[in-house]
Design goal:
1 helix, mainly alpha, 87 residues
Amino acid sequence: MKKIFLSFAALCLVASVYSCRETANKAEEAADAVEETTGEAVDAAKEKVEKAAESVKDAAEKVADSVDKAVDGAVDKAAEEIKGAVN
């Protein structure tokens, strides 16, 4: 009876060691997957931020051009009105 009990205990020990090793491997695989997914998400976010920054830059340039044109037009109109008032 003692041998059966010891054999069963040894079998349980081997099974638990195998199970822990398998769990550790699965945990490592999951960590690798999380790392890869996180890296991809960071890269995607970086691209979106760069595109947004470029869009903001383009919009700012368009606004600056519009302001320049509006100021030039106002100056020209004011100059014409001054010339008209003088004549």
